[in-house]
Write a structure and sequence with these properties.
By secondary structure, this protein is mainly α. About 80% of the residues lie in helices and about 0% in strands. The longest helix has about 35 residues, at about 95-125.
């Protein structure tokens, strides 16, 4: 692969991934009912509002799920993978394979959001255990539903909470066993 193609691939993937992470964060904020008045939440809301506001008029939320946000994530994910496929192979992927591949990619990105949220929260708890930074509060709200089952069965050992180790391990296993095969089937069908 030529350096120009590698650079185009990297820039395309990075720009789409940053915005998709913002959209997925917004969706997770709504699912876990995070504090929307947190300054970091407000940043995510302002960045993601331009495409979501008009689409919400067409696709309302139902059963507490922001379907407009999921639709934008899917569309942008399909656009990202189509562009990456075209940059690398100079052809467009098949629609069914592209859709499955996008579902796998969004699943993987969501799991990585939890992974990095838990990791950053663990590091911040060691560096500044009694801090009240807005990031710490937001990370706690995002990870609490995921960490609750671990904390119920694994008590702190000598004052140290080791549950993030097991949560991160489970997330890695889920990426391998769930997201990996979906991406694999999608790429196979996309060719």
């Amino acid at each position: 692969m030529s350096p120009f193609i590698q650079a185009a691939y990297l820039v395309t993937q990075t720009l789409f991934d940053i915005y998709l992470f913002a959209l997925l964060l917004r969706f997770l904020f709504q699912v876990v009912r995070a504090d929307f008045y947190n300054p970091l939440s407000q940043l995510v809301v302002k960045v993601t509002n331009p495409p979501l506001k008009p689409l919400r008029r067409l696709i309302p939320g139902l059963w507490g799920i922001d379907w407009a946000c999921l639709m934008i994530c899917t569309i942008l994910g399909m656009l990202k993978l189509s562009l990456l496929f075209w940059i690398q192979l100079q052809k467009m992927p098949g629609p069914l394979g592209l859709f499955v591949w996008t579902l796998g990619d969004l699943t993987k990105m969501t799991l990585y959001l939890f992974f990095f949220s838990i990791l950053i929260q663990a590091v911040l708890s060691w560096v500044n255990p009694y801090g009240n930074h807005p990031l710490q509060a937001l990370l706690s709200q995002i990870t609490s539903p995921f960490m609750r089952p671990f904390r119920r069965f694994i008590p702190p050992i000598a004052g140290f909470d080791i549950t993030p180790i097991f949560a991160i391990l489970l997330i890695q296993v889920m990426i391998i066993l769930i997201a990996g095969p979906i991406i694999q089937y999608g790429t196979r069908w996309a060719l």
